[in-house]
């Protein structure tokens, strides 16, 4: 475990906690895309099947359980909680799941490291994670006014994969640990999707004005 | 021996 990996995991954890905090305390999910949250729940459910088969470390297992638990609770809050669900803007959050899920499924069937169920699901989860933020980014673009917590959530989520890339570079040089090129490409795509958001996030921070995305 | 890719990251 190096500092980049730890920082990446911590920003990932923080992003989820920020979102849960917002939903739980303000009882509102305004500006949050249910589509993105459902895709993340699917990402974790397909990637972390290995908690039943492999043991890596207590840290690893605990983190996996946290990500599974938090993603499914967020989905539950937006769909089922009697107050939170009222703040969900269904009309704006129109991105179609299958538009992302199907291509990722096909790509995983075509490009993978090993043809086993577990490995295919893992590869699928890597592809899906790379693009799962899209419904959320589209929603931000549509609503334009972004509250602080939602902005921080997206920022932390983007920071997480960028730190993972630094972690892969570091591991390559220190441990000669090779991350498969599938992971590299997906990770780079995932990080690049945030480039635009990062730009406006830092601009608003620098000028000390409220974050707004251009129409 | 067969190399099984192990995913030790999250």
UniProtKB/TrEMBL annotation, chain A:
The keyword Transmembrane applies. Keywords: Endoplasmic reticulum, ER-Golgi transport, Membrane, Protein transport, Receptor, Signal, Transmembrane, Transmembrane helix, Transport. GO terms for molecular function: ER retention sequence binding. InterPro entries: ER_ret_rcpt (IPR000133). It comes from the Eukaryota. The keyword Transport applies. One of its GO terms (cellular component) is endoplasmic reticulum membrane. One of its GO terms (biological process) is protein transport. Belongs to the ERD2 family. This is ER lumen protein-retaining receptor. The lineage of its organism: Eukaryota, Viridiplantae, Streptophyta, Embryophyta, Tracheophyta.
């Amino acid at each position: 475990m190096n500092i980049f990996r730890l920082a990446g995991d911590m920003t990932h954890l923080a992003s989820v906690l920020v979102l849960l905090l917002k939903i739980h305390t303000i009882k509102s999910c305004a500006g949050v895309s249910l589509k993105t949250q459902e895709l993340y729940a699917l990402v974790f459910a397909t990637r972390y099947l290995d908690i039943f088969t492999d043991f890596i470390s207590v840290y690893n297992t605990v983190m996996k359980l946290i990500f599974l638990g938090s993603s499914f609770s967020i989905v539950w809050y937006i769909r089922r909680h009697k107050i939170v669900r009222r703040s969900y803007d269904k009309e704006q959050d129109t991105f179609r799941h299958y538009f992302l899920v199907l291509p990722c499924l096909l790509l995983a069937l075509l490009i993978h490291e090993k043809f086993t169920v577990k490995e295919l699901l893992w590869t699928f989860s890597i592809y899906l994670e790379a693009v799962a933020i899209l419904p959320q980014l589209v929603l931000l673009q549509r609503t334009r006014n972004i509250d602080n917590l939602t902005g921080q959530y997206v920022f932390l989520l983007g920071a997480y994969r960028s730190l993972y890339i630094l972690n892969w570079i570091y591991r390559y040089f220190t441990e000669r640990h090779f991350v498969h090129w599938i992971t590299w490409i997906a990770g780079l795509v995932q990080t690049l999707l945030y480039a635009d958001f990062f730009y406006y996030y830092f601009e608003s921070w620098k000028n000390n004005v409220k974050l707004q995305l251009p129409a | 021996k067969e190399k099984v890719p192990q995913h030790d990251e999250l």
